[in-house]
Amino acid sequence: MNIGDPAKPYFLDVDTGSDLSWLQCDAPCQSCNKVPHPWYKPTKNKIVPCAASLCTSLSPNKKCAVPQQCDYQIKYTDKATSLGVLVADNFTLSLRNSSTVRANLTFGCGYDQQVGKNGAVQAATDGLLALGKGSVSLLSQLKQQGITKNVVGHCFSTNGGGFLFFGDDIVPTSRVTWVPMARTTSGNYYSPGSGTLYFDRRSLGVKPMEVVFDSGSTYTYFAAQPYQATVSALKAGLSKSLKEVSDVSLPLCWKGQKVFKSVSEVKNDFKSLFLNFGKNSVMEIPPENYLIVTKYGNVCLGILDGTAAKQTFNIIGDITMQDQMIIYDNEKGQLGWIRGSCSRSSKSIMSNFP
User: Fold this and answer.
1) Is 71 a catalytic residue?
2) Is 70 exposed, middle or buried (0-12, 13-18, 19+ CB in 10 A)?
3) Catalytic residue among 13, 214, 318, 323
4) Does the annotation mark 15 as catalytic?
5) What's the pLDDT tens digit per position in 213-269?
6) Which GO terms describe its biological process (predicted)?
């Protein structure tokens, strides 16, 4: 994203599982990580006062220790944290007609970041682009200012790269699987509700599982029962040429008769998983959406046991969202997905989703 005046580039992690965007910030910095660009440096006039409505909505019972500023602290499920103050600055956004718009948006100036147990705040990004449902989310702010509708979508390519869009201009008009957004028992997540899990079109016999979509999670996490059922079904159907092996990358891995270079070499040895949300709303999870090949040439399961992270719900993470457009439509209260290539080509994005 290009932020500030003049606009400077920042790399942000796309996170549909949280509401407050933030940049590592020199205010001055107490604990910041090595990042691709110079830390964001706020000027006094950019600092959001404690009485501002977005400050109140972020923490309604906040006592204003320092009226001139709005302090925040966020803790993520992997124990990573960000501490800082709210600021407002210009974001320069590209529109479909190649023009640009400048939006003055509120976000966090994080001067103290602690890395979680998965090393969530990586050196590859300058901060976080939070696209949750809350009023402080950039998506809600863009809607509030009349710039876009409260719709966001992303498409991550298995080859790296992809695209992100705000508004509903490029949402396909047909072939999208839509489900109503459901309320979740834990947090204000985007959820398609409870789904029944199938492996190779056979029910795994576990009770319907509450699912959330979270692009801030690299891997997919299942609660204990569906995780164990998935692992058992996978192991039962494996060819003799694959042997279980220890690999530091992930908990469950296999080696072949030769070193694997990509998932495409091994995907025929595995079957698809399916999540059925009822009324013909099925998400297929083919092997390339749950397997990874490590640098050691082994193939590993990219679905992890969520109970280790004390999660009671099931998270569909980036690995499972690859090569499909995922649409979060807060205007109509629905979530959608459609398979297609997420690699950007000179042809228009839409031609990849006929």
Assistant:
1) no
2) buried
3) 214
4) yes
5) 999 899 999 999 999 999 999 999 898 899 999 999 999 999 999 999 999 999 999
6) proteolysis
